[in-house]
Write a structure and sequence with these properties.
The chain has about 475 residues and is of the alpha+beta class. It folds into 3 domains: about 90 residues, Uridine Diphospho-n-acetylenolpyruvylglucosamine Reductase, domain 2, CATH 3.30.43.10; about 110 residues, Uridine Diphospho-n-acetylenolpyruvylglucosamine Reductase, domain 3 (2-Layer Sandwich); about 210 residues, Vanillyl-alcohol Oxidase, Chain A, domain 3 (3-Layer(aba) Sandwich). The protein contains 14 helices and 19 strands. Strand 5 and strand 6 form a beta hairpin. The mean pLDDT is about 95.
Length: about 475
């Protein structure tokens, strides 16, 4: 994430003249805010930041970086765990001002610019009782989520986020503006649906929409850790029913001082289910009855609520600027031994902000062929995420080692695959191949055609072979 090319500050003035949006240089007002990203362990200083207002600014930035021999990074929501949005000495394209959303209710399509956050899209589509597959934290950017595959509460019904993309507008390494879809540049379209930022800068996305909400049965319910064995069996039973409208996330952590949790449990180990039934309210009420009746919960906010409120329910657990380190694997199921092992490690987590999470996947994505997109791993039932989170730099080593130790112990339950958007900075090589489930070589072929010089290298890089 470091480049060595230096460019005279005067040269940047020529770039400024080619832009509609602001160009922010080191030391200028707004520089630190523009370079800041979600993961507080990342502190990098780009040579300059283009705050793009449109596709023209993106193309101008790419042309300038190519002419000057600068590496280029792209910031959408800035939420990637590896900090891919920013690099020392690079030119950053900050897309965060490009947040337009247009809904076509009749066609059930939404067009969204690449700077949009999940909440931007959800707010507009829910005005029409429609939604697409997006993630779990509303402040996440749609671009990074989608280009890495993407999953959320609607994944059991409708698949990966990238399975629901109809088209993308892209600026290539040569500065050309092209469209990628099933009928236009289909090889590029295939590569972008999981291959990340390796092939160009996507400036807008078109997604399919589905009738969801505005009101659904959803929320969270928690029990003391002493009830974890019974909750595990309940969770496994819910997953086994294979009702795609019922998404259930399992979480292990220490109880935060949230008002919905009993004060006496604050700071103590809990097991929680985050529930989203995206069908009718009547069906949702029936589906959650036995969950709400189980054991003695220490907090229960599973109730009729808006879909947008559910989409932002976890936002407070992921504040920008906190320090984060993750490890993850795909699972083919939820073995009791695995769940017990996770609970043992959760009891030893050094930070009250960390968590171990199991996100549901099984359903629609398993029905598509393995080669449908490079996300691959269509044999997965869930994503297992060890999410270390803490406040102080002095606690880095302890928290990172807890995550790594937990992963080393529990990795034996993996399918062998992992989610590319959850890979940390040092996870390259074999880990990148694990993420692509056998599609790595085909991705290299696409990269060789669309970016043969590896101009776009500040990503989970798939470098083409050198002649």
């Amino acid at each position: 994430m470091t480049t060595t090319t230096a460019v005279d500050t005067k040269v940047f003035e020529a770039l400024r003249a080619r832009l509609r949006g602001p160009l922010v240089l080191p030391g200028a007002d707004g520089y630190d805010a523009a370079r800041a990203i979600w993961n507080g362990t990342i502190d990098r200083k780009p040579a300059a930041i283009v705050r793009c207002l449109g596709v023209g600014d993106v193309a101008a930035g790419i042309d300038f970086a190519r002419e000057q021999g600068l590496a280029i990074s792209v910031k959408g929501g800035g939420h990637n765990i590896s900090g891919l949005a920013v690099a020392d000495g690079a030119l950053m394209l900050d897309m965060s001002l490009m947040r337009g959303v247009w809904v076509d209710r009749q066609a059930k399509r939404v067009h969204a610019q690449a700077g949009c956050l999940l909440g931007d899209v959800d707010r507009e589509t829910q005005l029409h009782g429609l939604a697409t597959v997006l993630g779990f934290v509303s402040n996440t950017g749609i671009a990074g989520l989608t280009l890495g595959g993407g999953f959320g509460y609607l994944t059991p019904r409708f698949g990966w986020t990238s399975d629901n993309v109809v088209s993308m507008d892209v600026v290539t390494a040569e500065g050309r503006i092209v469209r990628a879809s099933d009928s236009e540049n289909p090889d590029l379209f295939w590569g972008l649906r999981g291959g990340g930022g390796n092939f160009g800068v996507v400036t807008s996305f078109e997604y399919r929409l589905y009738e969801v909400g505005p009101e659904i049965m959803a929320g969270a319910i928690a029990w003391p850790a002493s009830e974890a064995p019974g909750v595990f069996e309940l969770f496994k039973s819910v997953q086994a029913e294979a009702n795609p409208e019922m998404a259930c996330v399992l979480g292990l952590r220490k109880a935060p001082p949230a008002p919905w949790l009993a004060p006496e449990i604050h700071g103590k180990d809990i097991v929680a289910l985050f529930i989203c039934h995206s069908g009718t309210l009547a069906d949702g009420e029936k589906a959650v009855q036995r969950i709400k009746a189980f054991g003695k919960p220490v907090g229960d906010i599973v109730q009729p609520r808006t879909y947008t409120s559910q989409q932002s329910l976890l936002d407070a657990t992921q504040p920008s600027g906190r320090r984060y380190y993750w490890k993850s694997e795909y699972l083919s199921g939820h073995e009791t031994e695995m769940l017990k092992g996770a609970a043992n490690h959760a009891a030893r987590m050094p930070s009250p902000h960390s968590a171990i999470l199991f996100f549901p996947l099984a359903g629609a994505l398993n029905k598509l062929g393995a080669g449908h997109s490079p996300v691959g791993n269509r044999d997965a039932a869930s994503v297992f995420n060890i999410a270390a989170s803490w406040e102080q730099p002095g606690a880095d080593a302890e928290n990172i080692e807890w995550a790594r130790e937990t992963w080393r112990d529990l990795r034996r339950f993996s399918t062998g695959g992992t989610y590319v958007n959850f890979l940390t900075e040092e996870e390259t090589g074999d880990r990148l191949r694990d993420a692509y489930g056998g599609h790595f070589d085909r991705l290299v072929q696409v990269k060789s055609k669309w970016d043969p010089t590896n101009f776009f290298k500040l990503n989970k890089n798939i470098a083409p072979a050198r002649p």
